[in-house]
Specification:
Number of strands: 7
CATH superfamily of the largest domain: Vaccinia Virus protein VP39
CATH class of the largest domain: Alpha Beta
Largest sheet: 7 strands, mixed
Bound molecules: S-adenosylmethionine
Structural class: alpha/beta
Radius of gyration: 17 Å
Strand content: 15-25%
Distance between the termini: 26 Å
Strand order of the largest sheet: 3-2-1-4-5-7-6
CATH architecture of the largest domain: 3-Layer(aba) Sandwich
CATH topology of the largest domain: Rossmann fold
């Protein structure tokens, strides 16, 4: 059974403009209301306008530090990387019948974008993050709007991946590979599991402890039994690399 989210899909260009506006407003210490005002002039946002306004309302309750971090989570590079993932993954499976396990899921921007972009989004998207604070904010501002988005604290290097067996058509997604120094977590994912991995070459960030310089390097670090997609995306500040395939 797939989740039904009211309203039509948001076009990618509207998503990019809205999130850019939101990111700018939050980054400069605002509460995101300029993004809400921008929404009122956007006919293409029409059916989803209330939903987006609720999101902006929720962000108003964040501290300045939290707003700054959320601004990064919805910046242009982050959003383009996730729209790319949704487009490519949709070519390889029926996401409406899938459950997503989003590792290092941060605030849950991937599930948020999946709900905006897909006519039939996944029935269940579970974000797992080692930092309980980001999951708590995600649950409050995103999870409260979308019944198919859930959050749990957890360390992806210690997770019991056998629980995937209980998830109908589960897909493991890790768009935070550059943050994970541990080399062994990948071997703990069950062989044959459908997965999506993203990393990047943005070595300037001290938290990026496991960057790669090419998609081939990502393939070497995270070998798959079958690769359905391997590619790179040129972004403003970095290259994003992505693999879709079976562990
Ligand atoms: C900065 S964010 C995400 C960046 C990434 N490009 C993205 O948008 O998906 C990285 C997240 O990974 C989380 N993280 C780091 N190590 C982790 C681990 N061992 N288990 C789960 N989450 C982890 C961090 O807490 C953080 O929320």
């Amino acid at each position: 059974m797939s989740a039904t989210v009211p309203g039509g899909c948001l076009p990618a260009d509207v998503v990019l403009e809205f999130t850019a506006e939101l990111s700018r407003a939050l980054w400069h210490g605002g509460d995101g209301w300029s993004a809400a005002r921008w929404l009122h002039d956007q006919p293409a946002a029409g059916p989803r306008r209330d939903e987006l306004t609720h999101l902006v309302d929720g962000l108003a309750g964040l501290s300045p530090l939290e707003r700054g971090d959320f601004a990064i989570a919805v910046n242009d590079d982050q959003v383009r990387s996730k729209l790319w993932l949704i487009d490519e993954l949709s070519r390889h499976c029926d996401l409406g019948r899938a459950s997503l396990l989003v590792l290092g899921g941060w605030y849950g921007i991937l599930p948020l974008l999946a709900n905006w972009r897909l006519a039939e989004p996944p029935a269940r998207m579970l974000c797992i993050d080692v930092d309980p604070a980001v999951g708590e904010i995600g649950a409050r501002v995103i999870g409260s709007l979308y019944p198919n988005v859930h959050y749990r604290d957890g360390d992806l290097t210690r997770l019991d991946y056998r629980e995937l067996e209980a998830l109908p058509n589960g897909i493991v997604i890790n768009t935070s590979c550059e943050h994970i120094a541990d080399r062994h977590w990948w071997s703990r994912v069950p062989r044959g599991q459908l997965a999506v991995l993203q990393s990047n070459d943005f070595t300037c960030c001290p938290e990026h402890v496991s960057c790669v310089r090419s998609v081939d390097e990502l393939v070497r670090k995270k070998p798959m039994t079958s690769v359905l997609f391997a590619g790179e995306l040129q972004l403003a500040e970095m290259h994003r690399y992505m693999l879709i395939g079976h562990r």
